[in-house]
Amino acid sequence: MKHRMSPFTSSYYIWNESSAVFYSSSLTPLHSHNTMQLVLDIQNNFRFRLENGHWNNYKNLIIRENVLHQIDTNKSVQLIIYLNPESPVSKAIKLSFPPGKDIYEPDLNIYHMINSGELEKAIVHPEPISMKKLVNNLLSGLCQKKEFENLDKRVSMVERIISNQDPRLISIKMLAEKACLSESRLRALFKKATGTTIHQYILNNKIRFAANQLMAGNSISDAAFEGGFVDSSHFHKMMVKMFGITPSDFLQNNKQKKYLICDSNRLNFKTKVRD
Known about the structure:
- The chain is built from 10 helices and 13 strands.
- The chain has helices spanning 88-94, 118-124, 128-144, 153-164, 172-179, 183-194, 198-215, 220-226, 232-243, 247-253, and strands at 8-9, 12-14, 18-24, 31-33, 36-41, 46-50, 56-58, 60-63, 69-72, 77-83, 103-104, 259-261, 271-273.
- The longest helix is centred in the C-terminal third of the chain and has 18 residues, at 198-215.
- The radius of gyration is 19 Å and the shape is globular.
């Protein structure tokens, strides 16, 4: 595998106890951080290995501080959160680690932990407040180990299909058949459970998927096609309508790596790369 020297990243948001970035198109060298690291894939999955270990695929992973590892973004996009290892949040998360292990694979669906459109907004038109809200919601859900037993299992299944499957294959008719419901019944149950219409949820996902394709290095026209839009013009129109930004502006805004210091006392973040 070739190590791409210019990975795609959003701005690095740095707060007092944490930092966050969207990351894609890279195979990292063997390295470690002085922080705990959460890697949450927002499209498919990524590949990961520890020093002297084998490559494995993951959807979500938490890595202890000062642990040598490599990440292959695997043509997907990850939200990476760095945490002060001595913070209350990190200490709560560490309680879930298997004894003697440097990594922990939580079984979670991040789309149950955030509101519809929240992730898409953070990717496409990010700013410190919305990014912080996203990170806090994810950390809160992880620390509290929120259970979603009250969520209709049919709605939960439909959410997973929409979030993880090729948008070009998604239709309300197909989803209703999978859930063994009529289309009207699915629409009603989905709105009651999530607070948003299934149509809007599908559209949010299409924009996220297409934006992820841009981050992974695809052209705007290819990203529009992969995202299930009629053409690049339709993709352009929907991004402007929903987030006030064009696909080309999105790429331009993330062309240069930026570090946004959001708190006066910022996280002490260091990376060591193995030669």
